[in-house]
Every structure is written in structure tokens, then in C-alpha cells.
Specification:
Layout (H helix, E strand, L loop, with lengths): L4 E3 L3 H27 L11 H12 L2 H34 L3 H12 L8 H8 L3 H25 L3 H9 L4 H39 L4 H10 L3 H29 L4 H4 L1 E3 L1
Helix pairs in contact: 2-10, 3-6, 3-8, 3-9, 5-6, 6-8, 8-9, 8-10, 9-10
Amino acid sequence: MTQKRVRGGGSTGWAVNAGLGAAGLAAFLALGEAVPRLGVVKERYFPPTSRIARALGDQFTEDTFWTDLGDTLTGWALGLAIAVGAGIVVGVVVSVVPYLREATASTIEFLRPIPSVALIPLAVLLYGTELRSVLLLVVYASFWQVLVQVMYGVRDVDPVAEETARSYGLGTWARVRHVLWPTALPYVMTGVRLAAAVALILTVTAELVIGAPGLGARIAVAQTSQAVPEMYALIVVTGLLGLLINVGARSVERYALAWHQSVRGEVTV
């Protein structure tokens, strides 16, 4: 049987995708400029793109903007790091320790669906508007993204590989390192990518609702003071952050899984 490798993508495909993305963004910006100008919606509620762009430029010149941006990134990074570390450790331990998975399954299924925003009153009660309130919500929401993916990854381990490792006398942690971890890593990276997006959402939400320092609180101030272009400009900043975080997470995923077939883009026919 003849085998050949089909390499996915390429410079041409990348250029086409980039061009289509740029065209779509340009059309969206043009629509945002035209809709209020044509009177479809009132400019006081939805300013044209040009006004939002000017307000965005003004934000970049203010020192307080960069301070708030730093506060948001701090809450996001700390919360994500804690959630990823805890999710990986707990997921591996629960999956490899006999009977522990069955003992914790009902608890996990009970806690996982609870919306993080439902914990806002508890966070305010415990920590007020401090960074710890933001971390509580971010960690809770992001932790489940990683934990579930780790458990799926461990479940996907080849039983034959596991038994082979046992027959060669590998201990528990050696099997985790050489058998379980390579199998679970693609799932782990998926969980980290999902958790990174969820962490940003919860960081901004916590700042917006609780009033913790950051971009969310700045958006709330702009809204209450009727500074509509500034409010939209800050919303654009959060969108750009989400885009950068997603691109960064995908880059880390490609680097960590450079050996994996899904990243190499090669298919054996």
C-alpha cells in the first residue's frame, strides 16, 4: 500500500485567508460608519466608526488607561495560571488514583454547571472590590475548562501502551510522564485555550459588575457618564485583547504540539 503525505495549508492559503479576513473587517468597519450616518440608529447610541477610532486614540494617550489595562491583564494572567495549574494537577490525580474518579464524579457534575457570575455576591462579601474577587470568579470559571479536558485526555490513553509500560516496570509517575502526558497534552492545550478566553470574559465581567479596577470598571464609568464613544472604544480594546489572547494561545498550542499530526498538518493516505 502506497503512502503519501498531504501537507495542509501553505503560503498561498494563508494569504487568501488573511485577505478574506481583512476584507471582512473592512466591510464591518464601513458598515459601522454608514449605519449611524444614514440614520438607521441614532449617533448618540451608536457613534460612527471614525468617532470611536478617535476616542480610542484619546484613550491611548491617558496614563490611567494603561493602568487599568495592566489591572485587567494582571487579573487575567493570575487567574488563568492558577486555574491551569490546579486543573492539570486535579485532573491527573482524579484520573489515575483508583476509585477517585467515581467518588468525585457527582461533585464535579454538580459544581461545574454553576455560572461564575452567580458567585459575584459571594466574592463581594468575602473580598469586596479587591483583586481577589476577580481571581475567585476567573479561577472558578477557567478551572473546569482545563479539568474536563485533562480527564478526557487521560481517558483516551491507549490501554495497550499503558499495559506495556506496566510490563516494563514503570512506576505511576513514570507512566504519567511517558504514556499519559503525551496522550493528554492535546486535550490540555485545548483546555488552556478555552480557559484563556473564559478568563478574559470573567475578568472584564467582574470589573464591570463589582467595580474592581480594570477595563470593565472603566467601561462602566464611561457608560454612566454618557461618554458613548469612549465606552465603545474600550469595548473595542477588550475585543482586541480577546483576539491577541486567542492568537497567542494558538501559537503556544502549535509550539507545544509541534510533534502532533494535527499541528504538522500531515495526513497519511
